[in-house]
Write a structure and sequence with these properties.
2 domains; alpha/beta; DNA polymerase, domain 1; 317 residues; globular; Rossmann fold; single chain
Length: 317
């Protein structure tokens, strides 16, 4: 959802045409949008269903409220919306009495609405409480990371999830600043980061806080930790011939998606040279997109936030 353009959740869902084509929608099929957001992809799916059903899931209740508005003509008949995290996809579908689905879509990352809504605390461009929770019912927030983690833990998070070269220095400056009082707002955190990043490094490239904010957001929501297991669950819940579409927005996400797909396509763990497979593991997924699908120039001209989007597709065997 990172590239979804929202004016109060008005949509421009990323890679919409490509995603719908790859889902290969059956009019009477069951489809699951694991990150419903404002309902843009979900609406396009619903328009292709006759006797079919769509399940829309999102951890953000604000997103679900917008999705209800977008999908109002289909609610109660073709559409069921669920507040939850797609890492629990097996329990969610079981609770709805659904055994298998014909297709899954997961649009990873943070939505433009979340970035642009100051009160959510996702953005370094707005002053707000340090929050960054996608599910505002969760107890753990960005404030807990920034004020509770040791310098070593902070450096690990910022380096690992933000790929920030100044991670150790930023962590040290955060710890030093919070000794005076807890860091309570996004601008207070930005101040510590700017002091830590040398002036020469701040002159070029993205905003000096961009990578650190990304890293903390990922840590708060365990965004990377849930990807592999969730993809395995989705694959297990697909009907034969069903499609799994995953859109990612940065290299860390895409690498995990790519590796999860590969492990499902080639699960054999036998050592090389054996005349026949002895581990008994059989392929569960056939990768449809050997290279990720990226936005067209026409889409990028309309929505610059789609630039980093990558779509990978697999089919249940």
């Amino acid at each position: 959802m990172e590239a979804e353009h929202l004016a109060g959740f008005g949509h421009r869902p990323v890679l919409l045409k490509e995603t719908i084509e790859y889902l290969d929608i059956k009019p009477d099929g069951v489809y699951v949008d694991c990150t419903a957001g404002g309902g843009g992809h979900a609406l396009a799916i619903c328009k292709r269903l006759t006797a079919g059903r769509l399940i829309g899931i999102d951890a953000d209740e604000d997103a679900l409220a917008r999705a209800r508005e977008t999908l109002r003509d289909y609610l109660g008949t073709a559409v069921t919306l669920v507040h939850g995290n797609f890492s629990n996809i097996d329990a969610i579908l079981s609770g709805l009495g659904i055994g298998r689905a014909d297709g899954f879509l997961a649009d990873l990352g943070v939505s433009s609405y979340q970035l642009d809504e100051p009160s959510r605390g996702f953005s370094y461009m707005h002053d707000a409480p340090l929050d960054m929770r996608m599910d505002r019912g969760a107890a753990f927030s960005a404030g807990d990371v920034v004020n509770g983690y040791s310098a070593r833990e902070l450096a690990r998070v910022i380096r690992q999830y933000g790929e920030e070269r100044w991670a150790k220095r930023i962590a040290e400056f955060i710890v030093e600043q919070r000794r005076e009082k807890p860091i309570a707002t996004t601008f207070e955190l930005v101040s510590a980061i700017k002091k830590a990043v040398p002036k020469g490094a701040r002159a070029d490239g993205p905003h000096p806080a961009k990578r650190t904010f990304q890293a903390i957001r990922i840590e708060v929501n365990d965004e990377l930790g849930i990807i592999e297991g969730s993809i395995r669950k989705m694959c297990g819940l697909l009907k034969p011939g069903g499609r799994l579409c995953v859109i990612s927005f940065h290299s860390l996400e895409d690498r995990l998606v790519k590796n999860a797909f590969k492990a499902l396509e080639r699960p054999c763990t036998c050592p090389p040279g054996l005349p026949a497979c002895a581990c008994g593991k059989r392929p569960e997924l056939m990768i449809i997109t050997k290279k990720p699908v990226t936005p067209s120039e026409a889409e990028l001209a309309e929505n610059s936030r789609a630039r980093s989007a990558k779509l990978r597709v697999g089919q249940k065997v």
